[in-house]
């Protein structure tokens, strides 16, 4: 074996060892498939004290308070806070028994999370999920026409909301 062949083999072996040690050429995980085109929109969490929760999100995490008020004829007190690219909505139930309210009683201590995804066509997704047997519904009263937002439960009873992507026209 001549010197150039030995040098080449030594170089090739060193390059192969480096590739193995550094993971070069290693199989890479494929990107997750997102067939429904879901994007995170916001998350809602229960708060026993809205003032305290707003103070914590603004001073500890640096969120800005965007909106505050009551909904469902005073049944909920809410606060909407944000940082660029993400929103947290906090709710406090003032009138227990509202259908979309966080759990009360035995389950109240475990907290409550309401995850919201945005899609380009919630009407089509609503129909497709109904065909799959998903527990989907709209808040009432429902305006006639196209579905622009709806709710469903996952297998554990957690509430998931689907809303129309705000910038869908630009995508």
Give the SSE layout.
Blueprint (H helix, E strand, L loop, with lengths): L2 H20 L16 E8 L3 H10 L4 E8 L4 E8 L2 E8 L19 E7 L2 H10 L4 E2 L11 E5 L5 E6 L7
Parallel strand pairs: 1-4, 5-8
Antiparallel strand pairs: 1-5, 2-3, 3-4, 6-7, 7-8
Overview of this protein structure:
- The protein is an alpha+beta fold.
- The chain folds into 2 domains: 1-30; 39-170, 2,3-Dihydroxybiphenyl 1,2-Dioxygenase, domain 1.
- It has 3 helices and 8 strands; from the N terminus they run αβαββββαβββ.
- It has an 8-stranded mixed beta sheet, with helices on one face.
- A hairpin with a 2-residue loop joins strand 3 and strand 4 (86-93).
- The protein is globular.
- The model is unreliable at 3-26 and 101-110 (pLDDT under 50).
Strand percent estimate: 25-35%
H/E topology pattern: HEHEEEEHEEE
Tell me, briefly, the overall form.
globular
- CATH names the topology of the largest domain as 2,3-Dihydroxybiphenyl 1,2-Dioxygenase, domain 1
Mean pLDDT score, rounded?
73
Count of discrete structural domains: 2
Would you report the number of β strands?
Answer: 8
Counting copies of identical and different chains, the oligomeric state is: single chain
- What is the fourth-level CATH superfamily of the largest domain? 2,3-Dihydroxybiphenyl 1,2-Dioxygenase, domain 1
Cα-atom Rg, whole angstroms? 25 Å
List keywords for this structure.
171 residues, alpha+beta, 2,3-Dihydroxybiphenyl 1,2-Dioxygenase, domain 1, globular
């Amino acid at each position: 074996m001549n010197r150039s062949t030995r040098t080449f083999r030594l170089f090739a072996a060193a390059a192969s060892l480096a590739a193995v040690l550094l993971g070069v050429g290693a199989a890479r995980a494929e990107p997750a498939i997102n067939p429904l085109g879901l994007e995170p929109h916001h998350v809602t969490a229960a708060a026993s004290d809205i003032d305290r929760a707003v103070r914590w999100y603004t001073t500890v995490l640096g969120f800005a308070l965007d909106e505050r008020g009551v909904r469902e004829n005073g049944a909920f007190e809410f606060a909407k806070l944000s940082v660029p690219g993400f929103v947290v909505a906090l709710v406090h139930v003032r009138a227990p028994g509202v259908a979309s309210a966080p759990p009360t009683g035995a389950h109240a201590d475990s907290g409550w999370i309401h995850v919201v995804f945005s899609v380009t066509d919630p009407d089509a997704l609503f129909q497709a999920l109904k065909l799959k047997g998903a527990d989907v519904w709209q808040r009432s009263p429902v305006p006639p026409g196209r579905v622009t937002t709806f709710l469903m439960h996952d297998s554990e009873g957690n509430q998931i909301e689907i809303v129309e992507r705000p910038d869908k026209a630009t995508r």
